[in-house]
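Hey team,

Sharing the Rhodopsin domain-containing protein run so nobody has to redo it. Sequence (286 residues) first:
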Amino acid sequence: MAQEAGPVGAFPPPPGRVPNFAQPEDLGRTNLVVGLAVMAGLTTVMFGLRSYSKTALNTHWYTEDWTCLAAYGLWMCYISTVLVMAHYGEGYHEWEVTKEAYKEVLRVGHNSVESTFRKPFEAKHCQWLYIGSILYCPAAYLTKATLLLLEARVFAVYERVSRGVFAFIYILLFCYIPIMMLKVLVCIPVPATWDSDIKPANCLNQRKVFISDMCLGVFTDIIILLLPLAMTFSLRLPFWTKVKVVALLSAGGIATGVSIFRLYKSVLFLEPSDRTEGFVLLDITT
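Structure output:
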């Protein structure tokens, strides 16, 4: 039986390209890991300070405090799934990932070398992508609900506005539930999501489901940004105080801008030529 001359990539390289398994080209993997570590660290510090202050001052925990706690836990789990995907090759060319990197992934029985190494990569990477996509929905919803609950409390003196915000929170929940169900049942049977050998299988277009989710996210980000800006001008405050408040709230426009940019890049990513490279920017901007 012929012996392998060297490492074999998870995917065949493009014509004229030679994989460098010893030093694969870094297409953003380092930036992804460092960025996630920094964001997780800052989030943990800010959440810890907030929780400590409420506990030390013996302050009552409101609904938004509990939703913030749940959102924090889910985002940490989501970041963990992205780090696992980075461990399995996200941020490198998909054809510069070696067999040894996947020695503990799902074992499959294929005869051809190409299918043998394509299968483990897709299975393991898509498993974690599937898990992350499911975690994203409740994490995003609880984050938005926390911000909306804070706005409802700030503008509680305007009863109609406060009720409108609560109504919007429930409407948002009813919007996120079907999207999450589509992500959970994107393939029937579910294992077909990461195992293309399971036949017969009925699968939705997973990328289009993601884009629907992101469109909803952009819409709600805009609402969360514009609502306090509009209400600030109705308050009886000195002009320059209003300007300062608006300037502070406008910082939220950065998050909205990032959401729009992420949606734009996701549309371009509908037909990726190198999946492990393309996911990096999407994960960083999440």
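Residues 101-122 have pLDDT under 50 and may be disordered.

Ping me if you want the raw files.
A.
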